[in-house]
Amino acid sequence: MNMPVDMSTTLGNAWFPTPIFTASGCASSGKELSQFFPLKDVGAIVTKSVMSKPRHGRPTPRMAETPSGMLNSIGLQGPGIDSFLANDVPWLLEQKARVVVSIAGETIEEYATLARKLRSVSGISAVEVNISCPNVENRGLVFACDPDASRRVIDGVRKTIGGELPIIAKLSPDVTNLPEIARGVVDAGADALALINTVLGMVINVDTMKPHLGGKTGGLSGPAIKPVAVRAIYQVHAALPEVPILGMGGVSSGRDAFELILAGASAVSVGTASFGNPSALVKIQEELREILSAKGFATLKQAVGYAHREENA
Ligand code: SIN
Fold it and tell me: 108, 113, 195: which is closest to 155 by C-alpha?
């Protein structure tokens, strides 16, 4: 018989009963997934990054299949913060789901505006500040590619939102020195880090001889990027062992989630795998519980960063 495992985890002062979350952008606000399992049964629902105004996103086609993954070029389509707060958050709280609200902006001021709107909302567990969306017209607006811009966004959100709500800064792997950017956003007030956003990629249709995606470039997700995620989480956990990491990138089994946890993740988001199997989160959660038990871990927390132990001894 498997030994029971305490699966609970924390990101800043937010507590979650299990470490398996949705990934922002892959399940909107969770309504479709709720046909397959009660949303309260997983760690948290991380909502699609919302902006201050409604947004149509990028031209179609917006998706491309690739070997071991997919490219998306959505361009932050969404209803805008006012509609989201009026409709999606109350519905999620009715489901008794734990809610992490993801926000995205085109300017430092837009992030602060979003933070101001969230300040008075009760019941949400944390805010994910997405500073790494690859699908913007101007690469200069990928704040997470610039240490100073990253810091300024998080500083603005922290000052506006106050001290209580945990801030999770979502970073890009498409940078030279990820630990430097991670340290900067933590110094600016982030309590936790989300690693990794998708990897910038492109597909050219060799029949039409033109870029396949309407927006030309897109974000690569799925199994192809798991080694990039493991590397990023491992590097950042080594540099900042006290900072909790919400890991993501190509997780489709309990073994994949366990790998990210061994690298240093305190929680794991599942995205692309849910498109093929909408119940993937529940399956991964149960597989992870069994693996932790079989490996003799009484708590999830004991396994976080375990792969670092030998070299630190
Ligand atoms: C998108 O809406 O384009 C994806 C968002 C992201 O990857 O951050």
Answer: 108
